[in-house]
Structures are given as structure tokens and as C-alpha cells.
Amino acid sequence: MHFADALPLQSGKVIRDYNLAFETYGTLNADRSNAVLVCHALNASHHVAGEYEGQPKSEGWWDNMIGPGKPVDTNTFFVIGVNNLGSCFGSTGPMHLNPDTGEVYGADFPVVTVEDWVTAQARLLERLGIATLAAVLGGSLGGMQALSWTLQYPDRVRHAVVVASAPNLNAENIAFNEVARRAIVTDPDFHGGHFYRHGVVPKRGLRIARMIGHITYLSDDVMNAKFGRQLREGLALKYSTQDVEFQIESYLRYQGDKFSDYFDANTYLLITRALDYFDPARAHAGDLSQALAKARANFLLVSFSTDWRFSPRRSREIVKALLDNRRDVSYAEIDAPHGHDAFLLDDARYMNLIRSYFESKVARFG
Amino acid sequence: MHFADALPLQSGKVIRDYNLAFETYGTLNADRSNAVLVCHALNASHHVAGEYEGQPKSEGWWDNMIGPGKPVDTNTFFVIGVNNLGSCFGSTGPMHLNPDTGEVYGADFPVVTVEDWVTAQARLLERLGIATLAAVLGGSLGGMQALSWTLQYPDRVRHAVVVASAPNLNAENIAFNEVARRAIVTDPDFHGGHFYRHGVVPKRGLRIARMIGHITYLSDDVMNAKFGRQLREGLALKYSTQDVEFQIESYLRYQGDKFSDYFDANTYLLITRALDYFDPARAHAGDLSQALAKARANFLLVSFSTDWRFSPRRSREIVKALLDNRRDVSYAEIDAPHGHDAFLLDDARYMNLIRSYFESKVARFG
């Protein structure tokens, strides 16, 4: 969908003449009360569920969660997935033309925040004629957007489902983001963010960024179970510093290569920065309870025991701040071995929890 | 000290005509029974204690631990620090001439292992006329060397003090090493490890490697306490993806820059690979108790509660395997907030523990 009007951003800049890519699943009911917005995290998109016709293996990134008969049941709900501004899967981003200059944005694409994405999503919903969301749902950075919805548009969200998220990033998380960004920015093929003009891609940096991401989204336990100290080839050591010796090295290199083939480097910078900046308590001198006083929605928070980037402790901070404000909050801490990635995976307890929340609470329309 | 004779390495290669840089502190006693060898970790050297005359701020890396009247008291002990082969602080390494070719080694420097370092250290001690060590002491990778001493030369070590170490690296640790190595190897200035010939240094890669190291050597708690989400400049956000916004970013960039000015890229590869390869249980189908059956020394093991790269769990594996062999083992798990770095820091309980072990156990000579 095209938006001609300027969208004012938190940075003070504006963006105009932009597109938002989105998909919908299910049917909007007569009183338009069954809409569920799904917000995506770092490298996902508006393609939340289902397969594209004739394209096997094109399942949406949350296809286990969303669809007919699934925990978020599209026989009941009208689900909307939106690709965020600045991303690289269809919505306007750094690889598109800046209408003010006629040149590709590149590094000049404005910095976008979680709040900006939510504002853009709200405009899209207005166009779709949806005044109120039955629920907004997201994991990780998507969870931050869900939380922000309840603060920016408190009267337009009935339920917020915030999975594996945090009220802000701690220093260690910012640090990992910063290393990834430095790897990209210092890649000679980055050209200050204007690599498109040079017909190159800063793949070295993207690979390193993705490898760091992969390590930190997994738990120590799952890495040991999956790879341990297993060698890639047979039993004999090669004694090499540059060749692959252990399976884990091979896996990481493969993931890095794959990512560098499709992900935009400027998008990576923008999205990690949005993560860094999100901090609703900042305007309240760090008092999260005060920051969340505006929220009117009912909440479900979910965290995973081995998630060390968005640990249960961080979800509990949100829960406490909501309880301080006497909000209706359900909270589940799921004992799963998969680290941060758990929010994308099939775990029967997790799936049943989301299903029962949507069936018993969100589906009470009107 | 120069060694003309070829040293056979685990890889099957040999290294000859090499130098080992070392320092000693205190006085070797008449029956040569008070020698303590200190093994270093990733970016340290033979300069363990004391200051160089006329060079302020040149304290050794373990100066809080070793010296006259200190926990390892050089009024009692004769302490030896050795720079490992392949390092970049005086011993023969990748930046030196390969006697076989007359060219700088670069990437052709042979892969060296913990076991190779121990063999080289043992040769040095023979030259110094020291048949038996009162103790071998090391933290992290240095602790691996201390442990390996008790297996390679069981009758030549009376005590082994193994601090913040592990019986091998787990998958996550190998993964972090691999990302750091890829950052170096894919830096266009690396030139396959022969950057010396090109008059350049792969500083981009070294910076990234060091930033990753710094994050993982600290604990989440200490990073939050030290930096949190503090902005570098005032209170206003800059909304930039490339400028420094948070203090933690500034700190990491500074540490990366500093490191890239003095550390050798090939050494980084070699030393992280030595970490990856160390695994005494490997030849025993993973049975650490069987692997440690050879050890005859008495042991002190120390770990730190917030060290997530060399966690207490890993030290306890060593303790258990030693107890299975009915070795004399003392073990302390110190509740310190500083993560892996704690082994280098002043903590009264830690310092007193090492002091009392050396006073009451190691100092019983003869």
C-alpha cells in the first residue's frame, strides 16, 4: 500500500511516498473486531503464515503459530502481517529511491524506531478500516512493537501478546549489536552505506553479523547438544587455523553466507538501532511502571528459560510494571532449551498457551 | 633463550631455531624446589609481574597476584613467566623468519597446541636446571596449560593451580572464536596471513575480534553496572546508525582500536585455535576421569560465578574427574560479578585463597 503523506519520525525527520508490504489471512468480521496484527523481528517480514502457490518451502516465518486451526486461528481471526519501514522485503527501505533526491537512499534512509513502525502500522490499519485490534502479537523486537502499541494507541488494542522480549536492551545486547554493525560498516564494500552505487554488497560484514546473531539466539545447551565438539570430517584433526575443523564452524559459515545473499546491510543497521533505542521508560527517568501507566490492554507475556538475550528477568520487569498499574497480565516462563530462538519453534506448551489465550480471552468479541 | 633443536609438534610438523622470551622473579633456592611456572592466556605475555625500570604503568599482567609479599610471594618462590610460541611478545611467532625459507612465517607458522606449549616450557625449565615445579599456575587458557603439565609431566609438578578454566571449549566458545577468526581472515588486509609483505595489518578484523572478546569476558551484570544504557553525550539521542550513541559502544571501539595497534592477527588465529583444540579427554573417548588418571599433582581449582565462557560447571567437571582418581583437590567457586575477567582482578577472597594455598601447601618444600 502506498502512503504519499509524510510520516513524522522520532528523529525529527520525515519519510513520504513510501510503501508498506503486508499480507492478511482469514476474514475481517462484520464489526471489524477480529483483527490481529503480527509484528516481526530482525530478519522476518510480512509473510507470517501460509505458502505461496507453486512455491514449496515458502512457509511464513510464524506458520506454526498462525493459520486455520492453529494457535492463532485464522478461521476466527483476521491476521495482518506488515513488513516494517526500512526492511528489505517489500516495504520502502534503504535500497529504494529517495523521492527528495531521486537517488537510492542507502545510508541516508532515516533512522526508524519501534514507535515509528507502530505509527506506520496504525496508518495502515486506518486504511484497512480497522479501528481496534483484537490483539497485537510479536516476539523479540516484534514484542517491543506490541508493547509500544499499548502505549501509543492504548484505546485501539484489546490484547497484547509480548513474547521473548524486553522493556529495553541491556548493555550486553547493545554491545553485540554494535559489533555486528562495526563489522558491516568497516567492510570496504560498505562504501559508507552507498554500496548499491558501486554494484557491491558488504558480504563480509553481513556474514560476521549473522554469525554473532546465530550464536546469541541459541543457548549454550542446544549448541552443545546439536554440535558439541563434533568434527566436520572424520576423526583426524587437520591442525589448521583457517579451514573448518568443527561442525559448529561449518554451520555458522553456512548461515552467514546464506544471510549475506539476501539481507540488506543498511537494513541490518537500522533494525539493530531500533532495538537499541527502544526504551519506553526513558522519558520517565527509567521508571517502567510510570511508563506503562498509559496501557489499557490486557497482556500475555511469555519468556523462555534459556533465552539469554531476552531473559525471563526482562519479561518479569514488564509484568511487574503492568501489575503496578493493575493491568490484567498473564505470564508464562517456558522451560525450553532453545534459547531466544524458542519463540519461533514448536513447543507444545508454548503453542497450547497461545492457543488457549486466543480462544479464551482474545476471541470474546464485542 | 634460543633453541636450535627441532621441537616436534602435535600436528606432525616441527619448529626449530626458535626463541622463548621469559622473565623470572625471586630466587631459585639451593635444592631448586621453589619454582613456580605461570602460564598466560590469550593476549598476555611472559611479563607477569613487576614494572620495567623507568617505564611507569608497565606492570605485569598478574602483578596483583605475584611479587614480594603478594599471594604468590616471590620472597619464597622463584616465579617464571614464559611467552608462548606463536605469540607476539618476544617468543618466535608468525612475524619472524622461517629458517627453512628465509621468509616471514605469516600464515605458515605451524599450528601450536597447549601440549606443544607445555613441551616447549619443559625444555626451557630443563635449561634452567629445574627438574620439578613447586607449582604451575594459570588462568583460562593458562589453566589449560597448567592442567596439561600434570598429564604430560606428572612427576615434574607438585601442585597445579587452575583458575577460570575448562577441560575443553564447548560449542559456544568455539563459535565465538570462529567468528573472531572469520573477521580477521576475511579482512582484505589479511592477504591470506601474509599481510606483513604488503605492509598492512588487518585491523578491521582484529577490532571485531577484540570487541567480541571483550563482551564475552565480562558479565551481563558488570556491563549493566558499568555502562547500562548510558549515552555517550548528554541526554539527546542522535538517531544515527554509525555514530557512537551509547557509552558501551565507545568503550568497545576504544578497546578494539587499542588491540589492533599491538596484537598480531596470525597470533590471534593460533591462540584461539589452541583453545579450540585442547581436549585431554578426546583420546579417551570423552572420558575425562580416564584422561586425568595420569595426574600426580595436588590441585587447586578456582572458578567465578558469573564467568559464562569458562563457567563453574566446567571447573567442577575437572574437580570430579580428579576426585574419581582420588587426587588431592581443593576447589573454590567465587561469587564475583566480573565474569571471566575476574581471574585477573583484585578480589580479597580470591587473593587470600591463592595466598593461603601457596603458603600452607605449596611452600612445604622437600
Notable features of this structure?
homodimer; 366 residues; alpha/beta; 7-stranded mixed sheet; two-stranded antiparallel ribbon; 13 strands; 14% strand
Care to describe what's here?
- Two copies of one chain form a homodimer.
- The model of chain A has no long low-confidence stretch (mean pLDDT 96).
- The longest helix of chain A is centred in the last third of the chain and has 16 residues, at 247-262.
- With 366 residues, chain A is of the alpha/beta class.
- Chain A has ten helices and 13 strands.
- In chain A, the strands form four sheets. The first copy, chain A, has a seven-stranded mixed β-sheet with strand order 5-9-6-10-11-12-13, with helices on both faces. A two-stranded antiparallel sheet of chain A has the order 1-4.
- Helix content of chain A is 34%, strand content 14%.
- The first copy, chain A, has helices at residues 114-127, 141-152, 171-185, 203-217, 220-226, 247-262, 265-277, 288-291, 312-324, 348-362; strands spanning 2-3, 7-8, 14-15, 18-19, 22-25, 35-39, 66-67, 72-73, 78-82, 133-139, 157-163, 298-304, 329-334.
- At the A-B interface, α3, α4, α5, α6 and α7 of A face α3, α4, α5, α6 and α7 of B.
